[in-house]
Amino acid sequence: QPKATLQFPFGEVCLSGERDDETEEKQSIAAVSGIFTTPILNGVCSAQYSEGSLGLRYLFKDKELTFIPSMSLPSNALSFAFKRSFTPSDKLSYWYDVETERWTAVYKRKVGKDFKFKIGYDSDVRLSWASVWVSISDFRA
């Protein structure tokens, strides 16, 4: 639970206190976390700090394309997310983790407002999958 939160136009900083129950003296430990966002190069750059880890992320989005590279420090874990809308009813999403070489891909197709179809692949579990969603709009109980 945050004890104090400082908010400003581009983000916030939270201060919280935690008890260290592993020591005999039961001392309190101060923790700092925060997020900072700012518009850069037609996108939004954000930095999030929590528990000694810093996450850096850039988000570019327009009507057809979304591109999100992100990096975690100090581990230097780098990943990319890419989304492309071919039409309002056809979308492709792709995510890749550089360090582990894991990736996922998902294709979504929407027909009207009552039918959706998704097909995808997850390299981590080596699994292809598909799902269908059908809405019954005139259903009466």
Automatic annotation (TrEMBL):
<dbReference type="GO" id="GO:0009707">
    <property type="term" value="C:chloroplast outer membrane"/>
</dbReference>
<dbReference type="GO" id="GO:0006812">
    <property type="term" value="P:monoatomic cation transport"/>
</dbReference>
<dbReference type="InterPro" id="IPR038951">
    <property type="entry name" value="OEP37-like"/>
</dbReference>
<protein>
    <submittedName>
        <fullName>Uncharacterized protein</fullName>
    </submittedName>
</protein>
<dbReference type="GO" id="GO:0005216">
    <property type="term" value="F:monoatomic ion channel activity"/>
</dbReference>
